[in-house]
Amino acid sequence: MAERLRINIGDIIFDLNLPAAHLKTLLQSRYEPFLTDRAAIWQVTLTYDPSLKIENEPWIHHKGARTHFEIAGHTGWIDLDTREAVVSTPSDALAHSAVERVMAFVCMQELPRYHNALLLHGAGIVINGKGYVFFGASGRGKSTVSRLARARGQVLTDENVIIRLTPSGAELASTPFWGFGTPLEDICRIPYQQVPLLGLYSLVHAPDFTLTALPPAAAVMELLTSEKVATERAASATAWLAMADRIIKEVPIYRLGFRPTLELWEFLALGQERMIRSTDDS
Does domain 117-281 have CATH number 3.20.20.120? Predict the structure, then answer.
C-alpha cells in the first residue's frame, strides 16, 4: 500500500502518494507544519526511476491541460483538468525537490485563478509584525537579505512566498518551499501565517542604498522578469497578469539597491517614511 502525506499550501490541498514508508518519514519531518486533514484537491504520485540523471537536457512540453517535463533529474506529467500529477526521482535525496517542483507549478497555476493570490519567487521576511518580500532572479540577493534578517525578525522562506489579497488588504503567507542558501533552522516554518504586506522590493546589488518606487508598468515587468511564471498557456498568462495588476494597486513595489549590511533595515524604514511624506505632499 502506498504511503501518503496531505499538505496544505495556500489552501491548495495535495495528497502525496509515496512509494516507501521511509520516504514518508523523511518528507513528514520536512513538511510537518503544513500537514492537514482537509480533503485533498490534488493527487501527486512519486515514483523511482534510477536511470534519471541531473545532467540530462531539460525539456518541457504542453498539450492541452497536460504538461510533460524532465528537469534537474525529475520527469513526469501534470494534468490541470484532472488535478493529477506523476513525478519520478532517481533517489531519496532528490525526492523533496521532485514533489516541490510539481506543487510549485500547481500553485503558480491555481493561486491566481481560484485563491486571489500569487506564488512569487522571493524571500518573505516578517519584522515587527509587518511583511516584506524581496524578489529577483537567482543571484540578486534573496539569501543575503534572509541572512541579514535573522537577528531582526522571522524568515518565512528564502525561495517562494504567497501574496494574497483579502478584504483587509494584501497579506504575506508562508510556503514549505525553501532554497539552499538559508539553513533550515533559520527558516520560521509557520503554516498559514498571514501578515500585512508592507512592500515588495526588487533587489539589485549596489555600492550604496537606493529605493525607487516603480510605476505600474515597470512594477509588472520587474515581477515578470523574476517570476517562474507559466506563460505557456494564454489562460495562465491572463490570470497571472490580472492578479499582478490587482496586487500592485494594493502594495507599493520598489527597486532596492543594497549592500549586504545590517544598515539595510534602518535604510528601509527611513526610505519608506520619505516615500510616504513625498506622496502626502503631492
Answer: no
